[in-house]
Every structure is written in C-alpha cells, then in structure tokens.
C-alpha cells in the first residue's frame, strides 16, 4: 500500500528525492498498512539537526486502546550528512521539504521525501497544458492501433 501526496507534484518542482524511515508509535503502522493516512497538507522541517514530519494525518487504529494525536509531529530517520546537505541548500534558496508518499518496505514504514521549489502560477498552467497534450497524443496513438 502506497499513500501518495498528489498535490505535491502539482504545487512543487521536485529537485531531489530521498527515502527516510519514520518513527511511529503503537498502532500507527497498522493504519498505514491499511492505507488510512493522508499527506495532502503535510510538510517536513529540520529542527536541531533532526528532520520532523508535520501535519501528516494517520487515522487511529480501531482496535487500539491508546488514543494518539492524528497530526502529531513524527521524527524522520536520515543520515546526518544528508540532513546537513539539505539544510545548506534550504538556507540558500526558496526550497522546502515535502513528503511525496508513505509506503511499507519489508516490515518498515518509509517516507519518500523531496527537496522542492514552489511552482509559480504560470508554471502550473504550463505543466497542466503539457499533461493534456501528452494525454491527447496517447489517445490518438491508441485509436490508431
């Protein structure tokens, strides 16, 4: 099961991607396996040399007795060199850390995190126009076959 952040590809220009582990508590892993999470308004920040995921909504598991905050900040596991490199890049420009997806790899939950730059309004329009043109070309090619 892969939980996607569809808005991220529309709102941001993706520069670099990295796979990060995520620190979860209790039954949150069961909710992710069931696909009961949402990344649409989530983002990541670097605080005190550590990366945290904010505003990611993971529904509480029905069978769990312990109630946890659905939108709490969750620590992401990255190498120190990666954190320092991204911190340097973010200090120099108008960049942000955006989660693209959460998925299960083996027995662990992973987050696909990217370094991204916000698209301007005309960039969004241009990418939508390119998508529609490519979609029309694909339809024409299928119709010929």
TrEMBL record:
Q: What keywords would UniProt list here?
A: Cytoplasm, RNA-binding
The UniProt entry's GO biological process terms, in alphabetical order, are: trans-translation; trans-translation-dependent protein tagging
Pfam families the record matches: SmpB
Q: Which GO terms describe its cellular component?
A: cytosol
Q: Which Gene3D superfamilies match?
A: 2.40.280.10
Looking up PANTHER family in the UniProt record yields: SSRA-BINDING PROTEIN, TMRNA-BINDING COMPONENT OF TRANS-TRANSLATION TAGGING COMPLEX
Indicate what this protein is called per its UniProt record: SsrA-binding protein
Could you tell me which species this protein originates from? Answer: Candidatus Curtissbacteria bacterium RIFOXYA1_FULL_41_14
């Amino acid at each position: 099961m892969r939980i996607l952040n569809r808005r991220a590809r529309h709102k941001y220009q993706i520069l670099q991607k990295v796979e990060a582990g995520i620190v979860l508590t209790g039954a949150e892993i069961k909710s992710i396996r069931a696909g009961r999470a949402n990344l649409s308004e989530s983002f990541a920040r670097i605080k005190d040399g550590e990366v945290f995921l904010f505003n990611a909504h993971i529904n509480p598991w029905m069978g769990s007795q312990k109630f946890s905050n659905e939108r709490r900040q969750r620590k992401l596991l990255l190498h120190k060199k990666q954190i320092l490199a991204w911190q340097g890049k973010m200090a120099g420009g108008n960049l942000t850390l955006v989660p693209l997806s959460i998925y299960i790899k083996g027995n662990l939950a992973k987050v696909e995190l990217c370094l991204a730059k916000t698209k301007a309004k005309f960039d969004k329009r241009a990418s939508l126009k390119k998508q529609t043109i490519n979609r029309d070309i694909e339809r024409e090619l299928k119709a010929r076959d």
